[in-house]
Write a structure and sequence with these properties.
One of its GO terms (cellular component) is nucleus. The structure is a single chain. This protein is an alpha/beta fold. Among the domains are: 1-30, no CATH class; 34-85 and 149-169 and 195-238, Rossmann fold (3-Layer(aba) Sandwich). Helix content is 27%, strand content 25%. The longest helix has 15 residues, at 122-136.
Length: 239
Amino acid sequence: VGCDRSKNLVDICGEKHFQAFVCDALSVPIRSGSCDACISIAVIHHFSTAERRLATIRELARLLRPGGTALIYVWAMEQEYKNQKSKYLKEKNGSKNKEKEMNTGTAQRPLNDQGPDNCSQDSAWSNQLLNDFKDESCGAMPVADFRLPVHTNRTSFHSQDLLVPWHLKGRTKKKKENIDTVVVPRGSKELQELSPVFHRYYHVFSEGELEAVCRSLDCVKVQKSYYDQGNWCVILEKL
């Protein structure tokens, strides 16, 4: 049984005849102690506070029967580990993908490359947001710089808390329209409509951090902790 916060992703599971439902990882509507095993892949690093990240692991443990196991994957701060670059750093938009985009007019990325795209105007956009906010707050108390750094795609992380830009791909073409030939000014409203950018929050985990959070819970023990292609991973057992 699968669950996800995104209804659209859950609907895709239903179309493929998998059992899945919409829920929040902080409150899973499944009876306590009813699962032999649980898997949490690329979820916990989206929670913005240490308290929520701990609560998510506690909720995962609640679902397990005694002796049950859980596997957790989170994005690692260390994208280069033991002198080896992660798959994330190594992968680029290869020539095959470029050819496919040119031939089809759309950017269909393979399942194993569902990663974020960098947008060079993101920093300027973030600066503009801050300036607008300050302009609207004239006469009020000084506003703290609340911005998070915007990550540059396929590069090492320089902050544990950051925003990763995602471009929405696959805009539906009008009849006889080829998106590859559409030319619009950079940063224009029309360009944003063609490829809107969304900023997704991440907390990337440093070495030992995920294991330490898990060990703070009395109801589980850490069976194994390891690094796997740019991710920190833990296998837990319910006591």
